[in-house]
């Protein structure tokens, strides 16, 4: 059975008074019709927070958190879906994805199995991020792309409150962009629009991710009742994002598109060329760091022009990458030793032992200003990477390794410190097989 993932945005799902029952009914009816055409449909439905907000305001609750709004609104959404399904003699299933689920490939594999079992048995899964428990608001566009990749979906439909992707306001442009390919989509300057969290930029990024995983994507209006069936019948109206022909194997699929990215590394031309030939990513090739991520999180790898080059699992936190980006091996070693010395001797100012580039001087000065909590976090990371050498740096003064010997030891250790190892890297634009230049 072919699979279609349909994502409904908050701006489409809800009105001022709460969930829009007509739109939700149309969407579920379309999903049931698609099933009759041989398609299983997974619905990723935003709107819990906005639905709960409307209900709590209407019932006179003066102040409340987004978490409470999500907890109140989610049952309202599911009740509408269930009532429509009951009239058709079908079942719906609710699956809430927490942030920790999205960080765990094993959990996501289990969820993928449940989703596939649902569609194979005529059950329509209703998926949403768990905004009642997560620290940050869910990006349901990214979740929809991840669901499409992990279920091996054939198509992804992102429904919103406009007819597609516009380069300017729809009031100015007569029509949306009809078609974009995966390699050009980063060049599109989109009109944000919408009342949801992500707007059009989030949808374009989700479409780009799906397209790089071989999934045809459409961004279209949720107000068109036939949008789902039109897309299935290859009669779409909106903006179509043409996919690449590449599908990744199961081991790489989680990195390639299932996990929600927690940040981005902007790389220089040398690093872009290197990862294109299958190399790991090193500090010297990283120009900028975006977002807040932890060791083990998936991050995007982006060219200076904004092109999505690939994704990988970061070995370190954003804090550590930001501290040593663009540095040489010797400079990284100096900064890592500085972190450990700062951890062991809080309050002792750090300084380079020899003339250093401004980037190193700035890093050491930043360590002097850094909170004890962040210093501790960095020190634990370094202890995890290099246990014996790091311990030698934080022992009491009389037992420590001499600074010169310790620095020499770290220079040797960090020589092969890749921030994303090639084994945990997925490249969307690899070069043809053959020897790398130079």
Automatic annotation (TrEMBL):
Gene Ontology CC annotations of this record: cytosol
Entry keyword annotation includes Nucleotide-binding: yes
Record keywords: Amino-acid biosynthesis, ATP-binding, Cytoplasm, Kinase, Nucleotide-binding, Proline biosynthesis, Transferase
EC number: 2.7.2.11
Signal peptide residue numbers: none
GO MF term (any one): ATP binding
InterPro entries per the UniProt record, alphabetical: AceGlu_kinase-like_sf (IPR036393), Asp/Glu/Uridylate_kinase (IPR001048), Glu/AcGlu_kinase (IPR001057), Glu_5kinase/COase_Synthase (IPR005715), PUA (IPR002478), PUA-like_sf (IPR015947), PUA_sf (IPR036974)
Domain PUA: 263-344
Highest taxon in the source lineage: Bacteria
GO biological process: amino acid biosynthetic process
Keyword Transmembrane on entry: no
Protein name: Glutamate 5-kinase
Organism: Pseudofrankia inefficax (strain DSM 45817 / CECT 9037 / DDB 130130 / EuI1c) (Frankia inefficax)
